[in-house]
Amino acid sequence: MTLKPLAVVAGAGGAFGSALLSGLDKAGYQVAAIARNPAPSDTTIWYKADLSVPEEAAECYRQTLEQLGAPSVLIYNAHRFLIKPFEETSVQEFEDVWRTDTLGAFVAAQSLLPAMVAHGGGTVIFSGATAAIRGSANFAAFASAKFALRGLSQSLAREYGKIGVHIAHVIIDGIIDGGHAQAKFEVPQENCISPVALSDAYLSLINQPRSAWTHEMDLRPFNGTF
Q: Which residue in 30, 87, 205, 225 is deepest, having the highest Cβ count within 10 Å?
């Protein structure tokens, strides 16, 4: 068991994942990170799991609880991104996106929330996207999954908020600087969201007093359209 408060980051890869791990460490948390391709470090305890496979993910969370105890923070940041015309999207592709973006979040919450409640509460943050509030052309699979994630977060907020767990949904309305999407779409840095600034926003949610909790936050660069 750790003497520091524990933060679990499920889906800890990429530029934003790195910024989250660093930010949480600097804020005084023992950090447990879960990813398909762990990147071991001196400040983070890594677990390897495919979060789209419920049995594998649940076993990973069981190990985390057994080895480190109940978390004070859970951040579900895993996602599978797909842009494809609807008629070309296969059933398997649609299900794969849903499994990572929605089912994985369900398994994470169901695995860790009981322990969080038993230890006095905490904060759960789900990473959303523009597609959580707007289903664009060629985004049928991704938007469906992100809409469902938003609905899950709303339901959990109403069920668990009154017993001390702060549930928040963050709409990341833009491309993250240094991420795969920036490289894919060749977006200039000034049009991207800083992963460090994004991490700071998550920490601000974690530090909110109970008398003024934010459930949903949307973040975009200053020149983003919405």
A: 30
